[in-house]
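Quick one, T. Sequence first:
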Amino acid sequence: MSGRAQLMWDEAVTGYDFGPDHPMDPVRLELTRKLVGAFGLDREMQVVSAKPAGESTLRLVHREDYIDAVKAASADPAGARGAYGLGTVDDPAFAGMHEVSALIAGQSVGAAEAVWRGHADHAVNFAGGLHHAMPGGASGFCIYNDAALAIARLLELGAERVVYVDVDVHHGDGVQAAFWEDPRVLTISLHEHPHTLFPQTGWPQETGAGAGEGAAVNVALPAGTGDAGWLRAFHAVVPELLAEFRPQVVVSQHGADTHFEDPLAHLAVSLDAQRAVQVACHELAHEYAGGKWVALGGGGYAVVDVVPRSWTHLVGIAAGRPVAPEAVIPEQWRQAVFARTRQWGPQRMTDGRWPVSWDSWESGYDPADRLDQAVLATRRAAFPLRGLLP
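Structure tokens:
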């Protein structure tokens, strides 16, 4: 059904809750869904609740012994096994953990199925993007890697070229690991430099192995990178790679933790630049993948001021009714935010930096500039492996 978009949503995903002192507060999902509704975007698309990912689907990426460990910790959190990354400070075990993690994964898998089968052009699961989970362990607030599972399902359905674009502030290490030797999946991650941020991976020299050599691309951005640098890096790397790879589907991860207000990282990106990259991913999906676009959430720990606005922009773009940056946020949403959090929500859908601008790579680069050094390191490491000039 060409032109249709799906929003993957089940209220139960807000049960992905590591506890009151954990930065991954599920209120960010609740408030995003309410803001999407306040703008009427849910009337512009199908709202779909997919079934949880079953064990055979989870095994497309995760080891059986790890799935068993998650199930055991879900039933008995006190018995969580640290060897699997469970019961740690980052990933505390909680009752029902397996069920809600499988539900979130199911939404991303359902999004991938809908887009591949032509039931929708675009599908969004902002509860997803849990990109750190490894085949055999939890990591970085992530239990099951829904992004990797969605890609694995696309391959199972017959896709031969899937691109994964990750603009979370943290390296998309789990997705990269899942497809490290698979030439059918091109993973591109733009993230804060591993010297200064978890998971301390995502160096430009990480380019894949075996048949997948050249199928992993990493841009390690200096701490403090702002809008112009972030957008310059994105446009200096991503479009050229997609033009060469010619993906059949674009899967993108839109962690909102690149924002200058995010408490867990050190980039200085605005909501307006995040929106610009969302628009770019949408346009690239149409230019190179026939419009097939699966868009996921990810990190983001400024749970009132940033995350709901960023992901509402993402939903609006996918729905074909983008929210204008200067739009005033409906008062009923701000009242709901205050009732829920005792904080007043923001008033507009912008940080006041729209329209954002950047200098294109084609205009030349400065070898003394740290951002340009980062981009050049990526192009030199990865581009020749794909037959491209650095």
